[in-house]
Here is the input.
Amino acid sequence: MSAFKKLASDTALYGVSTILGRMLNFILVPLQTYVFLRPSAMASNVELYSWVAILLAIYTLGLETAFFRFAARRPDDRPKIFNETLSLVIAVSLTFTALIILLTPWIAVWMNYPGQERLIIWVALIVAIDAIVAIPFARLRVENKARRFVQAKITNIVIVVGLNVFFLVVCRDIYNQEYLSVLKPVIDLIYYPEIGPGYIILANLLGNALYFVLLRDAFAGFRFRLNPADVKVMLAYAFPIMLTSLAGLVNAMTDRLFLQHWLPAGFYAGLTSQDALGIYGNCLKLSVFMALVIQSFKFAADPFFFARAEDKNSPKLLADVTRWFIIVCVLIWVAVSLNLDLVGLLVSEKYRPGLPVVPLLLLANLFLGVYYNIAFWFKLSDKTNYGTLITIVGAGVTIGLNYLLIPIIGYMGCAVAFLASSVVMTALCYALGERYYPVPYDLKSALGYIV
Here is the structure.
């Protein structure tokens, strides 16, 4: 099998879990938006899940990418590298989670969520679990056990979706004695209506906790071990990756973190700023069509290109892969943008005013996907500090434009800022890459596909 076919095959296989996950999440979008008709009810979840992504970058310290790099360089030392990488992530995760739990009362006040301390604790535990299992998942990818990876992901997806239905529909209906009233005494022990959308977070936590069972073979042979000299070398490579990821997430999450704070009161008639955040956050999920392609590709591409880091044909292969990646993403962008009326049926009517942001969000994700493709140059050439620089510039563009545009055009300003930042990052990454790791991209054709 040629290298290109191998990458395509792995992308398709990883895409099974990614696509199924996103599609099942699509099932949850109408479920959640029809259960919680007032968009403001979902605002806290939108904001808290934004923090999940940012905290996960801090917890993992960029060590997932470091594991790929060092495991590819020293295959015989993979068990040792796995032990030290996972040990470091566990130590960091437990420390930060304990600190967050200790400070929960103050964090709840700061976030303006008094009385919802349990949600913050659940989120901290979700982040810790996700960070810890990231390394065993990386091990499966390095060892080309894509089927095992997909199996664990799909099982988790089914469990989380099932728990959503259980808490949001079954428990609610039995509690209200719409059917199976005989079970109400049992449901009264686990269901409290005041938690509301918090059950979405709890379902996520319970589902993710089962990863420790689902990945028991990937954890096999693990011994907690930290060698200061090895840790120093790994962190020297990984820390810029972490900063890059963090800046990238700030770039991606700024809209959800600050929309309700920077939106003038009464900007949307009859809607609060929390309503606006709920609308935007759920319409953002509709850009999932592009995100699933990008995520599937990233799962396959990381171990694929690191394993071929020394291959003289890698630049040409990367150029070919990027060209086909752009073609697929452009087709998705056009197809979804031309069928917004159909896509809008996935959310309840009160969320549909936000649909015009979807084409811009899709295009922004397209450029972000191209950025991920061409960003391999600084990972393969060990110049990860450039990745940090690029994403910091992107984050600056995002924050600045959100601050300027949200008071003028509302959540449409969030989409414009995201698109502008993605374009700037892609252009800057391409320009720097041509200096340090030349790749024969067909720039004219790439721009032609998009325009």
The chain has a mean pLDDT of 82. Residues 228-262 form the longest helix (35 residues).
